[in-house]
Amino acid sequence: MNTKKDKLVIFDTTLRDGEQSPGASMTKDEKIRIARMLERMRVDVIEAGFAIASPGDFEAVQAVAETVKDSRVCSLARAVGPDISRAGEALKKANASRIHTFIATSPIHMKYKLQMEPEKVLERAVEAVKLARQFTDDVEFSLEDGSRSEPEFMYRIIEAVINAGAGTINIPDTVGYGEPGEYGAMFRRVIENVPNSDKAIFSTHCHNDLGLAVANSLSAVMNGVRQVECTINGLGERAGNASLEEIVMAVRTRQDLFPVETGIDTSHIVPTSRLVSSITGFPVQPNKAIVGANAFAHESGIHQDGVLKHRETYEIMRAQDVGWGHNRLVLGKHSGRAAVKARYEELGIHFEDTAEFQMVFERFKALADKKHEIFDEDLQSLVTGTEAPVERYRLEDLEVRSKFGSLPQAQLRLLIDGESHRVEAYGSGPVDATFKAIESIAKSQADLKLYSVNAVTQGTDSQGTVTVRLERDGRLVNGVGADTDILVASAQAYLDALNMLDSGENKRKGV
Ligand SMILES: CC(=O)SCCNC(=O)CCNC(=O)[C@H](O)C(C)(C)COP(=O)(O)OP(=O)(O)OC[C@H]1O[C@@H](n2cnc3c(N)ncnc32)[C@H](O)[C@@H]1OP(=O)(O)O
Ligand SMILES: CC(C)C(=O)C(=O)O
């Protein structure tokens, strides 16, 4: 059996189509940083921008072309002379360059947007490819809105641009309208009906308007396509593009299915995703495939038990292969004995017998009903005999005044051992003022070791989760608070930590 696979060219357009996401514009230096990571990842082609779009984008394409040595650098250009010349100019110093020129071929785009007859479009496409070939011998031609174009017209224009010197033919699903079976079949028919189709590599470029970008791209691959255009984290115009990490890992994981392989070093996927997210300010949703924080995290007992017995029961990839340190077993109310015991063993805590462990496990479940996630410190306190925290402190009311030029002031009403108290304090910031106000009455003598805020969902109305870590007499506790008001969440987290500290103390004193 012949197992030799075709090379699947990975064409990354994070810096061009990704940048077309509203709010994701990048500076030249940011583009260089991302391009370096893409090069390290061994992306074959980096589309660095649209050189004619602005002087800044021209400089960015130029700078990426001068920096990157191992990947081909590409600029987009409309099928017009000035765009192509500008792209050629920006790419002059590239080790390996490509000009990517395009024109729309669908009836709706030709009639309303371009306001051109199909014959004129065909003529412009051929002229554009010929001009681009004067700057580089690697020219890609895209039939914009290809998935909504008439097949017979596509066959004619593709044959003509290949004859004019285009080596890559991209048929994008520009508006994310395609369906996998239909889009894949379109490529099969194009390849069968264009007489010189063997002279070019066919390429896919899918948008995610119906959430089908990756499925459509992979269907195209199954039907003869050998280049996929994609972006890190699926960034891109509107709902985004097909995501690089999903395409690459699908092809790699389903080697039994796909007749292709990529040259990508997948261990750079997560660091690159993080970089793109931090530069664009677009967070990665926790449940995003491959790069989401939960992609290799298991919370439920049955899964955790399976993974502990044999990782492949619930994992089709290794976290390390995509750049995560390792997978994670998150302890919470859905966890079972296997995962809890395994974590205790990792912490060096062993149990005399099943009965002792069972007692701790019951405490664990009681605590897990009150907290989202159980940390190592919680596990430790459960074995030292600490019961689930007694709620000594409870937030009744919080008002924070913050005015430009003056110190923020926090006023709180706290229920302490069933009695209501009003407290207030100033602080260097609203959170500091809140914590100082609590401490003005709690006088815990605990040190604040960690304060962290995480948005659970996106947007300014998102639910925030705050973690507060306090230390007293060598004992660490993590308090957690969640609220759409980040100050309320902070106060709750602080009080949660105090409750845990005091529960432990009371237990030790035998209260
Ligand atoms: C599907 C895609 O992602 S395509 C890429 C989309 N990306 C971008 O548009 C980002 C960069 N774009 C820009 O900076 C600007 O749109 C520019 C510099 C390209 C053009 O700016 P302007 O000259 O002001 O034109 P404007 O954007 O208003 O309109 C686009 C023009 O290009 C024409 N056009 C659009 N695509 C093409 C094409 N592939 N080939 C030739 N002409 C085209 C349109 O018909 C329109 O022409 P008109 O002005 O004669 O009506
Ligand atoms: C220019 C082309 C490739 C494009 O971005 C699209 O059609 O979405």
Automatic annotation (TrEMBL):
Residues that coordinate or bind Mn(2+): 17, 205, 207, 241
Task: Give the family from UniProt.
Answer: Belongs to the alpha-IPM synthase/homocitrate synthase family. LeuA type 1 subfamily.
MF GO annotations? 2-isopropylmalate synthase activity; acetyl-CoA C-acetyltransferase activity; manganese ion binding
- Provide the function of this protein: Catalyzes the condensation of the acetyl group of acetyl-CoA with 3-methyl-2-oxobutanoate (2-ketoisovalerate) to form 3-carboxy-3-hydroxy-4-methylpentanoate (2-isopropylmalate).
Q: How does it assemble?
A: Homodimer.
Recorded catalytic activity of this chain's protein: 3-methyl-2-oxobutanoate + acetyl-CoA + H2O = (2S)-2-isopropylmalate + CoA + H(+)
* Name listed for the protein in its UniProt record: 2-isopropylmalate synthase
Give the Pyruvate carboxyltransferase domain ranges. 8-270
Q: Which NCBIfam families match?
A: leuA_bact (TIGR00973), PRK00915.1-3 (NF002086), PRK00915.1-4 (NF002087)
* Enzyme type, top EC level: transferase
List the top taxonomic levels of the source: Bacteria, Pseudomonadati, Pseudomonadota, Gammaproteobacteria, Cellvibrionales
Q: In which pathway does it act?
A: Amino-acid biosynthesis; L-leucine biosynthesis; L-leucine from 3-methyl-2-oxobutanoate: step 1/4
UniProt-listed GO biological process terms? L-leucine biosynthetic process
* PROSITE patterns given in the database record: AIPM_HOMOCIT_SYNTH_1 (PS00815), AIPM_HOMOCIT_SYNTH_2 (PS00816), PYR_CT (PS50991)
| Cofactor(s) required for function per UniProt | Mn(2+)
Q: Which GO terms describe its cellular component?
A: cytosol
Keyword list (alphabetical) reads: Acyltransferase, Amino-acid biosynthesis, Branched-chain amino acid biosynthesis, Cytoplasm, Leucine biosynthesis, Manganese, Metal-binding, Transferase
SMART domains in the cross-refs:
LeuA_dimer (SM00917)
